Amino acid sequence: MKYLSYYSILSLIILVSCGPKEKSVEDVIETGSKSEIEQKRGILNKDMLELKNKLKKLDERLTQFEEDYDYALVEAMELKPRNFKHYIKIQGEATTDENILIYPEFSGNLKEVYVKEGEEVKKGQKLAKIDDGGLSSQLAEMKARRDLAKTRFERQKRLWDQNIGSEIQFLEAETAFEQINNSVKQMESQLNKSIIFAPFNGKIDEVITDQGQVVSPGQTPIFRILNLGQMYVSANVPENYVGSIKVGTEAIVKFGSLEKEFQSQVTQVSSNISESNRNFRVRVAIPDQIEFVKPNLIATIKLNDYEANDAIVIPENILRENAQGESFTFSLSMENDSLGSANLKKLKLGKHYQGEIEVLEGLEASEIVVTEGARTIKEDEKVKVLNFQKN
């Protein structure tokens, strides 16, 4: 019975699947009754409505393909006022005012050198001594004569105050003492030059002349001393920027060899313009935390010569130029989020920097400008925006 029931169910499925087929229009017209013909007509009407809906959807999609083909394809951005800075780029070098060669002020044999290269020294510290050639002995003798002259002068002065002795004797004693005293001072000053002192706090960068050599004023450098704590960058700026570069101007300094960049400002502006190169010099401070800076190290400097708040700025590459040399670009009047028409905008331009340019006249905030495809469209041309950068 179990197998019989399976066969019965299978037979029923076959009978249902092999039921009567739907009559064609021709068969219904030829053999069908009125009700059968009306029923057939209703079925066809329903099929026709479904087909019309499907055709409508296909037409809408085909229209989208036609729009993409008929409209110029562009990219656009909405303008937003922002801060705009312009910089000039110049080259300078690290330097310090406390970097000098020390020359002797006295001729003779370099008797003693008290410091070594790399040694830190204080202002007024003894660095070296030159053989004085017997002047110290002469000074000792002169001081003895001065002491004697002083004693004679003081005695004559006491007598003169008591109205004893002549005025001539008093004046002669005073003059003799003053002369020998002045001679002692001159000799002391001369001998003092035989000792070389540090002119400021710093480091002995180089000992140039060895102990035992003969030295002469203005001819024989003995030491190089420098102070790296007072470093700055010095640079020449063309004279046409004389009105825009001043003390406090922002500066961005880069030492390429150190791979270091920092922000600073101009601390000094020269009042003189060089006749030879028509430049003026500026100083830019180096912060203390910037290490390994050496005198004469090359630096690249960017000086902020212009800044505008709430500026209209566009990419420089979207600009075009007409036959009259006027600059223009295209803004868009949008019909919806993706379709619009191009409007030619003549522009008055300001400074440009790093691929951007300030628009002084011709465009307003919130306008939409073409950023890609501007070189292929015309005024009033319909466009389709593929990429729209909104603020």
TrEMBL record:
Residues 310-374 form the Multidrug resistance protein MdtA-like C-terminal permuted SH3 domain. Keywords: Coiled coil. Residues 34-68 form a coiled coil. The keyword Coiled coil applies. Residues 102-225 form the CzcB-like barrel-sandwich hybrid domain. Gene3D superfamilies: 2.40.30.170, 2.40.420.20, 2.40.50.100, Helix hairpin bin. This is Efflux RND transporter periplasmic adaptor subunit. The keyword Coiled coil applies. Residues 233-305 form the CusB-like beta-barrel domain. Belongs to the membrane fusion protein (MFP) (TC 8.A.1) family. Residues 135-192 form the CzcB-like alpha-helical hairpin domain. SUPFAM superfamilies: HlyD-like secretion proteins. It comes from the Bacteria.
